[in-house]
């Protein structure tokens, strides 16, 4: 198929970190005019491989061939000098600077005295050619996520990169933006750019890639051209024999309850992020209400309003039949509301404190003795053991600082703590984001089990598959408003996706 | 903030003391070189400083006198710093404490000592506390960072004190000296052993013990440590952060206010515009060197007090400008700052 | 209002505003690069003592300014060493630098206490120097004439050059600046040196331009006022000019009121710049974005 030389070829790349072999004799190459997808589970070694290519990591052994010569890439500067550029998942735009300034910062031969107009014209010229339209004078903080990604790509193009590495570029995009990105990539392919595209989503790979390299456990499980690839074949390569079973959600009918656990009536918020507008929502016992939406459309704000972290600017919040509009976080938690966060180590667990101390933070008032002058550690320990047993988990060492626990154990600690109160209402904010397949499955099982025991849950997720398989009801948030509501069986992923991007229901 | 995942294991305290001694030794050597360059005999200077501070009974009492405001203003920084609040306003809080205390001492001068003294101290605490709480409010609502507002309010506080001392409260009998009338005897803090060491020392030491016990044993200490370890997690666990911001700023400011009380009520006996030679700033540095550790604060305060007292020695016996000791103090800070990595 | 009143207020405003203006122009550069320098007071003292001593020794005020600027620049490199190379806490390092400057300047200045110099001469602009009301503007010393051009230069450097862009990027997000191929430590060193030059000039203006003597702690808090001015200006060099005018005006009015026995307390008037700075911050607190550099005061850990 290729009668030209690869633009970049990695041969026999091995890279180990303490306790883990991240890449084991990996071969990988990319040709000009090609979109090469790098597919694999979290932890399969994709990131390490591209970081070696971009000079962030240095391989222990192995060679990198650039065109017809062997090169050493010791830093991102080396990589960019060779024409290798990367768009990270976390964008590196500086919010306070304009698009022009953000792009100028990355130009290789920037003159000492800047002419913003010239740079703006170059941006417009290139963005016109590839469909990357963006206002060059806008400050970066005003751009949407999709626009920020365009600027990141523009930065690479204007800096004359020939090899573009995109790390999970579709994660943050809505369906029509994903289509737009694929058109951009196709245009770049036409102009002879080499694109390395990291993902773990099969349909995307099959839509846009010319060649697919599947990684598993630090090695290359296979490299296929598009024509040879099927969904089933790729899945086989990704997971080997251990194809993870998605827990079947044994659905029980929603109990007809006298009163809902939570009612929001025309709730508005105002503040730094997205403002919620006229949110009306109920959650009944034994029901999971899924919240769909592109991140940044008010999901986090919705969770924070329910948990009492954000004050309402209008409307009413009723928890267990009582007006809770002005309740403090503490009061809401003590009424039986739990929080299952995206990243417990950041949002719920205090690393320097011990497991036991973290447990006590679930409700310090409950464990306080003598008006607060002492803490009843025996009671804390009893509750820790009890909750651990109930969730059928292994007991964590109580005296160990939480920060030294493994990621899985931190998640367990957070669940043990939050579910120790036997919550009636659970707010789950991207509960499986960042977890590997097994961890995600365990978390979903737990949430379903809690629902089946009668808890009501608000499930905020960006994974439509997860939302469809777990939710009893779905709502869609768009720019802080609920723009649609349906039962999963009465709607389609396509319909929800369209609502998420601002389409009109049924239109 | 601090990446608490990989905490560096603590050195044993013996090693820490040894290391600190080495670092400070380096500072003393550099300062000796400075003295040499200025044509002075460093060995004699150090001997004089030592013999007139730590060895001499009266000298040591003066060191203790200087330690009192330093310990209190250092605590004023250390307490809010437990939840990442940066209070550089100790100086202004000290002045406001002195102002409130002076008001109480003047207005209620007729009261007996056992009623007047607690009142003076309480109002001093209140003055410093409220001054700091202004910054606390602005921080709690997310309007202005407390670092900036405490810094700006220092000047305002000093100017307000000047306003009263030059204006309405000026003692008509003290011709050209801007100062208030002398406090009545009942408003003077008791001093001990015929020296100027006053009750403030005891108050400062009790404050240290309370600080330590609250932090390690109580529910509030647990919540404070939680906020210190992960603010977001603390907020989501239902800890009322805004309330703690206010309370800890108030308590910190109140302690700095007590330092002001000690200065007006025990040392000066009246309010003067130049109340403090920068105790608030030195207190900030002391708290910082000690990393908020109570023992470290006491030790650093002792060191700084000796150095400050040494300034007088250098000025009188060696005819050097008194502020030359600032060089020694700064050198010590430099070696510590250059040594340590801060989260 | 009488001509002499306006003229003396104007003169007073220029005299008290200038040193603060220069110091604040330096401070805005370092703060844009992500460093807070609370030791500005010490830098100014070093500039003041060095320029005064040089002027006494050489008899040339121009050499004095030059020496003061150089001393300030070099002195600020101590801060660079601490906060950039050793990644020390910026606030503590700044305060330590202030104490160091106070001590060193006292030591260096001791022999010069009581010396008198001619200092910087006022340059009269023919035809304008004797205008009523505005006259004082045109019989100032060279540093006063250069103040506004200096502010414009700092603005141009920060917002219209590659160096300024990289500097602001370092102040906002050093990791991103590093990724773009710039070296945050190098840029912060440059910024601190440059700011030291300005701080040194500010000190020189004070000792050989305005007061024409040397005294310990003669800056009397002007370094901190400069820090406040940077906040007041929301980190913008041109707005600093207004802040300096305001500050200078408050001081000058105060002196005039005092001289005339007006019933306005000078001390309460003096609180204005600080309260206004706080007020400005409060007013803008609700804004969508704060103007402070996002990485101000943080330590750049490198990319390891």
From TrEMBL, chain A:
Protein name, UniProt field: ABC transporter ATP-binding protein
Pfam families per the UniProt record, alphabetical: ABC_tran
InterPro entries (UniProt xref): AAA+_ATPase, ABC_carbohydrate_import_ATPase, ABC_transporter-like_ATP-bd, ABC_transporter-like_CS, P-loop_NTPase
Domain ABC transporter: 8-242, 259-504
Keywords recorded for this protein, A-Z: ATP-binding, Nucleotide-binding
PANTHER family the record matches: CARBOHYDRATE TRANSPORT ATP-BINDING PROTEIN MG119-RELATED, GUANOSINE IMPORT ATP-BINDING PROTEIN NUPO
GO molecular function: ATP binding; ATP hydrolysis activity
Database matches in SMART domains: AAA (SM00382)
Keyword ATP-binding on entry: yes
ATP-binding in keyword set: yes
